[in-house]
Model the fold of this input.
Amino acid sequence: MSLIPRTRGKRLLLVAAAIMAACAGVDALLIEPNWIEVVRSVEYLPMVRPGAPDLTLVHLSDIHIGSLGYRERRAIQIVDDARPDLIVVSGDLVRGGDHPRDLQEFLSSLRSRYGNFVVWGNHDYWDGVPGAWGPEVVRRAGFTLLTNSSRAITYPGGRIVIAGLDDPVTGHDNLRLAMSRVLRQDLCILVAHTPDIVSSLGNWDIDLVLAGHTHGGQVRLPLVGPLYIPYASREYLEGWFNVPPGARLHVSRGLGWSWLPVRFLCRPTIDVITLRAGQPPGQRVPKSIIGQS
Ligand SMILES: [Fe+2]
Done:
């Protein structure tokens, strides 16, 4: 039995399907993994005093540095152009774990006004990086590694504490420790690799949570949707979410890839977030104001 359709119409359909599949393959393998989307958003901070200057926060996640290629150099240029006040990398720095020089060169090319912060992700632990060369490379690159710890910065709008949770997938997270030096009146940004940690924030006074891990699904098929979403992260594929007890969650689609070098209908992203004092347009009642009791 021949696999080639007998009618001309069906043969044309087959050829069209083959061309579409070839185009999709080229897109997924060669184009999209390197085609960074800059996603810009504005997040209002009712607790910061009115008139405080905007802060530009660049959120990178799942950078999965295997080498310094076109995508990585383009990412450095995008971050540079954003002139960030803060840079946060929410885990999964490596892919394979044997490229310390490339990771150091990449991270050390990222510069911000107030500081660069990073937490570990599951791939970092699976590749043994935190127990080997990882901390030294991160430190040399000028990043502050947060492993269930926090660091405060002061800017004209007040004090911001960046609290970093160690990787939850491999069981290294300790929220109590991460939050132990955060004061109630601080603007608190919690950085964690996986977004599902928002289900256990308890009553900690956290304003923003930054996470990644999902890769946005990495491959999304029409009508089917994302092919792979890590366990427990399905609710938070990408973007902004309101989460209890009153925090805002931002999930990045990530810059790199893992397992397979593909992205389809799911471009890598660099998120440029403007943190702005005050209420979102249309809302009036402030939650609290820094410095007021
Ligand atoms: Fe990842």
